Every structure is written in structure tokens, then in C-alpha cells.
Amino acid sequence: MSQSPFGDISIETFLAEYWQKKPLLVRGAYKDFIQPVDADELAGLACEEDVEARLVITAPDNDTWELKHGPFNEDTFAELPDSHWTLLVQAVDNWVPDACDLVEQFRFIPNWRYDDLMVSFASEGGGVGPHYDNYDVFLIQTQGERRWEIGGHFDQHSPRRDDTPVMIIPDWHPEQTWVLEPGDMLYVPPQVGHNGVAVTDDCMTYSVGFRAPSQAEILRGFTDYVGEQLTSESRYADPELTVQEHPGEITPQALEKVRNIFNAFLNDEQKLATWFGEYVTDPKYPELDQSPEDKINSQQLADALSQSELAFVRNEGSRVSFTEQTSGDVLLFVDGQSYPCKGGSIQLAKLLCQTPNLIINQGEWSGDALELLVSLYNRGCIYLAE
Ligand code: SIN
Ligand code: CO
């Protein structure tokens, strides 16, 4: 297991006592952290077409909020007030490969739970207001200082301001307040109220976020997936029907048949795993086509490997996971597609899920594994290191 980012608290203790349970403040967790993105670079990213960025401008009385969506331009930044604004950029690790090292330190949490690395830059007084998220987040202060107020458990039924473009918890009464300095980290579990306000003019916070599908998404997603594979002739059937006492009754036997329809699909190991793996590895931005202009085939890969080893890098925006089946075979999931793996390709599948850097040598890998590499390369899920 990798080194704990929680100081004296081990990763095992963090998971047992804090993860999804209660906040944790770690002073000096990232003391020597070199920021892969500074404020100017963040503003530059926020001007790019494909980058998801927001600006939240707060009135100095902290009672009204304005929300703007990117892409921005130089004028947007020139027109900002002197204080009380924050710029938030999502998925910075998709665009800045150096930012991935930070995320790799959180791989003790399964890949499929990871959402993205968001980076914010705020002027004094800037923040998004008191709110809660449905996600787990590790907030790492990398520059300047931010006051974090934490407290209370909230859900969809909790009161919220209806006159603001961002979610704001009214009558905010924090239970704890900490000022985070560069290198400090705060873990906030889902539904815990939090409010981060920049207390310096150069406040940067890196948020490593983890998502979890809602039960509604799981139920709808799976039934949609199964439903699409069925013909309209696959129906509730009751050839053994006998006369029942009351024609109005939906009998326990009828309900049992309905339950059995669900069970038949749920108990199909392959179906549930395939749907779930494809669903949770769907890329954050599926509309972005990452595939290379020049595709390769197996022969070209074999020829290149006969010259020298090849270093591949997992695409920063790719999501990868696998499941092991009772047969010992593996189903690899990459960006919403599944790849059944047997024999030699199993090791490659697991390696791809373990590390963003793959060094491939001639002779070390089976034909299956090289075929898998070709498919992944042609989809843009891996690329050749410079
Ligand atoms: C931030 O302002 O960097 C974090 C926003 C949040 O609380 O989710
Ligand atoms: Co939040």
C-alpha cells in the first residue's frame, strides 16, 4: 500500500474511521507540493473551448452570488472586481498530465469512484458559499490561505436558497472552522456542509473528488441496458394460470414471477458486471474524440517493437477498471467499453488499471495482449510517450 497522505493516520485507519463518515484535517500533508498549474495557467485553461470552468462572484456582503460559465476570455478576467470572486476549473488532470501525480496518490480508492481534479483560484473573500456535495472530496490548499467552515448533514430536503444560481444553505451555522495554509488538506465526506472563503488574495485549492452513482442511476441504468437487449416477445408469461378467487387480485404468484424477471438478470454475473463496468468507466467528457489520426495495426506494432521497447501513457481522461470472473478471465473496461481478456491479455489489463505508464517489450506479451494494445491505441485510450 502506498504512503499515507494523512500523516500519522494510516490509509487503513482513514478508510475505517473517516471515509464517508467524518471530516479530517491534515496539517502539512503536502508541504513540498509543487503546483502543476499556477493561477495564470488556470485562467488560460478556463479560456479553452473544451474545458469546463466557472466563475463565482460574491457580493462583499456575502449574500448574493453570480455564476458565469466558461469558456472565458481575457476581457472576462480584466473586468473582475478586486476581490470576492473565484475561478473553478474541472478535470485539470485531463489537460495537464503533471497534475496526475497528485491523483495517483489516492489510488487506494478504486479507480471507478474517482471523478476529477478540480482546481480553484480565489481572490480575498472568494468562495462558492455554504453548500454540500454528494461527493467525497480531498481539499488541498496549495497557495494562499482559505478559511473552511464545516458542519451539519444535509440532503435534498434540506432548506436551500431559491434566489441564487449556486446551491446555498441558508442560516449557515458551522460547527468547526479551520484556516488552511499551503500543504494542509481537508477531507469532506458527502452531504457534510462546508464553506471555503479565501482569506488571502492568491488562494489556490486542489480538490480531488470522488463520485458515487445514485441508487436511481444504478437502477435505471441497469434496467435500460437489459431492456435494450430484449425483444418485445420476451414477456411476463403465465401458461399455468388457474382460476383465482378474485379477478382483481394481483396474486403473490404473479409478483413472484415479476421478481424472478429481475432476479434472472441480476444473477447473470456477466450482465451485471458488463453493464456496471461500462457505466462507471464512461468518460467524463464522452464527446471529446481522443483517437489518433494515424491508426495502427498489429503488424505495425510488432514491427515497432522489434526495433525497441515502446512507452505508452494512459490517456489522462480515460477511465479504466476490471472485474475478475469466476472462470478467472477478466473483463477490462475502458471508457465505457468492455474487453473480455483471457490468458496473456489479463496481465496487461491489470497493469493498465494499475499504472498510467506502460513499458512494452517485444516477446514479453502474448498476441492477445498486443491486439488489446492496438485497440486501445486506436481509440486514443493510450498514446505513445514523447
Ligand atoms: C473550492 O472552492 O475550491 C472548493 C469548492 C467546494 O467546496 O466544493
Ligand atoms: Co463543495
Structure description:
This protein has 386 residues and is an alpha+beta fold. The protein has 3 domains: 11-210, Sandwich (Jelly Rolls), CATH 2.60.120.650; 221-267, no CATH class; 298-384, 50S ribosomal protein L16 arginine hydroxylase, Chain A, Domain 2 (Malonyl-Coenzyme A Acyl Carrier Protein, domain 2, 3-Layer(aba) Sandwich), CATH 3.40.366.30. It has helices at residues 11-17, 39-46, 74-78, 92-95, 100-104, 215-228, 252-266, 269-280, 298-307, 344-354, 367-379, and strands at residues 24-26, 53-58, 65-69, 85-89, 114-122, 136-143, 146-153, 176-180, 185-188, 192-198, 203-210, 310-314, 320-324, 330-334, 337-341, 357-360, 382-384. The chain has an 8-stranded antiparallel sheet. The protein is globular, with a radius of gyration of 25 Å. It starts with 10 loop residues before the first helix and ends with a strand. The model has no long low-confidence stretch (mean pLDDT 96). Residues 86, 120, 127-128, 133, 194, 196, 205, 207 line the site of succinic acid.
